[in-house]
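Researcher: Please predict.
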Amino acid sequence: MESDNYFESLNQLHRRLNDLDERGLVLTLAAFAEDSLADLLKAFMLDNSATKKLVGGYDAPLGTLSARIRACYALGLVTKGQYHDLEHLRSVRNKFSHTWEPISFEDQEIKKHINAMHYSNLVEKFPETLREKIESSISVLLLEIKVARVEPDLSWRRKELSDLKVAVRVADAYSKPVLLRAIITMSYAHWEGFIRTCANRYFEHLTLRKKQFIEFERQIYVNSILGKLDALHRSRHSVRERCKLVNDILDGQSGRFAFVNPDLVDTRSNLNTDVVTDICLICGVDPAHFEANRGFLDVLLLKRRNAIAHGQQEFIHATEIDDFVANVLALMEHFRTLLENKVYTKAYAA
C-alpha cells in the first residue's frame, strides 16, 4: 500500500473490524500486518527492481507473512515483543485459515496465543474478552510499525537533499543551474509531504485511543463538524435535513472519534504559512514558529518553487543552499516535535 494512503487504510480497517466474525477479524488483521511489514522492509531498502522482486515479486523470498516477520526482526525493524506478537498472530491466522470446520477464540491453542500477546500501554481500557485483546494488541502494533517509519521518513528526505547539495558542488557549469532549481522544488516537495504525513500519523494515534469526543480537547470535535458545515454550505439540503444535521452536531459529542476528514490536513499543493497555520489549528498546536518564519516559507521557498513550476527562470546561488536546506529541515523537525510532545504529555485529552 502507498504511504500516503496508509492511514486512510488503517482507519477503514478499524471501521470494518466490528462487522467481522472471529475468522474474518483474524484474517483481516493478518493480511494488513503482512502488507505493513512489506512497507516497513521496503522503507529500509533501495527503491529498485531487486527490492520489488525480493519483497513482492512472484515467489518472492520475503513474500509471506512468516518471512516478513523474521526479516523485520533480523534487521532490527521490530522489537522482540513485536516479533512474538506477530508470531502469535500468524499462528492464530493459520489455525483459522487451515480448517473449514467451525473454530473460535475459545479453542485452547488459539486462546493460548492470544493470551500471550502483550497488552499495550496506549489502550486505557483493559480488554475484557479475547476478541478485544487481539484487536487492541494488533491494532496498536500496526500503529507502532508505522511510527517506526517516522524517523526513516525524515532520514531519507534529509539524505536526498544532502545528495542534491553534493551534486551541485561537483556539477559542471551546464548542469549546475538545473540542479540549483531542483533543490528548490525538492525542498518544497519534502516540506509539504512531511507535514501531511506527520499530521495524519498524529490523528491515527488519537483514533487508536478509541475515545469519545468528549474525552478529547474541544478541537477534535470541532474538526468533525467542519466537514459537515462545508457540505451544508455547498448543497441545497431541505430544512428537515438541515435540522437533522444541527441536531447531530449538538448531540454528537457522545460519539467516538474514528477518523479525521482528509480535507482538513490537505496541503493544497501550496503549503504557505497560512495553510500550515490552519493545519496547526486542526492539530491543536502553536503555529507561532511558522509565523515567525513567514518570510522564508512564503517567499524564499514557496514563491521560488511556484516560479519554477510556472516555467520562470528562478534559482538560488550555490552559497545559499546549505542554509536554505537547513531551514527547511528545521521547520519539518519543529512540526514533528510539536506533535510528539503533545502525544507524550497527552495534551490532546480533555
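Model: The CA atoms of residues 61 and 143 lie 25 Å apart.
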